[in-house]
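Cross-posted from the bioinformatics board.
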Amino acid sequence: MQKPKNKPKAFIFDVFGTLVDWRTGVATVAQKAFKEKSITYDPFKFAELWRDEYKPAMERIRSGKRGYISLDILHRENLERVLEKTGLSNHFTSTERDTLNHAWEQLPPWSDVPDNLSKLRKHGFIAPCSNGSIALMMRLARFANLPWDAILGAEIAKNYKPELQVYKAACQALGLSPEDVMMVAAHNDDLFAAREAGLQTGFFPRKTEHGPNQTIDLEAESDWEFCGKDMHSLLTFLEQY
Amino acid sequence: MQKPKNKPKAFIFDVFGTLVDWRTGVATVAQKAFKEKSITYDPFKFAELWRDEYKPAMERIRSGKRGYISLDILHRENLERVLEKTGLSNHFTSTERDTLNHAWEQLPPWSDVPDNLSKLRKHGFIAPCSNGSIALMMRLARFANLPWDAILGAEIAKNYKPELQVYKAACQALGLSPEDVMMVAAHNDDLFAAREAGLQTGFFPRKTEHGPNQTIDLEAESDWEFCGKDMHSLLTFLEQY
């Protein structure tokens, strides 16, 4: 791990996967809904199928085929596809689908997050740089106890990561140069883009984000300014300054 | 005071004047800078002249004569005019002017604000709906201890209050209907616009915002959904639900 030239003045975070366990969170909400209807479908499989629709849905916006639409609406559209695919469409009314869509606001933080994120505030500003909307991130922050200074990300930029504009817009909103901002993520592709936009980068893995058989993002794929095992190691890293 | 039909789910706030004392804050920073240079100019008068440039500068943007530019830049431009007007131009280098411009991030909260704003969070989401930028509001939140859920306002809408789009964009970012959001301000004109945009409105006066001889906004000028004497009375009002 190298020591960066200048200590970051702000830390912006990927959220889904890096700070919160979307797979367990969505599965928990789905399981509750399934139980009420005596549905036996595997809720973890359901969460994974829903998440699989995430990147293609954003890609239509990133490629310019569609104008910016918030992730809440994309999640709701994707839910329709997943209910079709799983043969569960006839079990849920439109209102019940709206309720199920709020699963993405009820994702548990990984155990090292709440306490260490609070402590990180003494080192600089902290904000999400997620593809989630302000409305979603704000509700998730209350649920998962994430004490943000501001909510940045896709909605500020009206585009989706890994488009460079999203990282640049976050720095501009912070009033800082990209070199004074560190993007922190458990996903190498997010960091490759952030580095291209001029930001510092920080990585720790989340080895069960996709379940017990995860094969991607198990380790750093470049010489990120910070590489460690979790949020606590990021704090330890910053204390060397 | 009437009881609104539905309890607000979010409260968005005017900041300069309503939550923080800009006149004292700017005068304090100016006084320190003046002292270092043995300048005897009245720092409160200086703060008032600087603030006088605020509305005309935004008006050029609201009228479409100029694209959206953050308030930080407008404040910096306005500082040039005020230094000219007061004959102090030759005392400050460009770097010193940049430093002086950060005065707007160092404004003390009125005494009833920090504690009661924290308590308000149990009644709903809280966010600024100010003409200040995200960068400015974020730094001011740290200085004045304002525990926001998100930072909304001019920068989200790329326009300035009292353009209705600013209030509407805040509600949209919150994921709420305007009727579920209360705009809180010590300024009647802010609330007339918020009401026109469909929001609920809350008022309490700040009788010394403009100094001891203030003549405006000493009382409510309409039947705002909430009218009280300060932030504490807003909390008491909400506890009747």
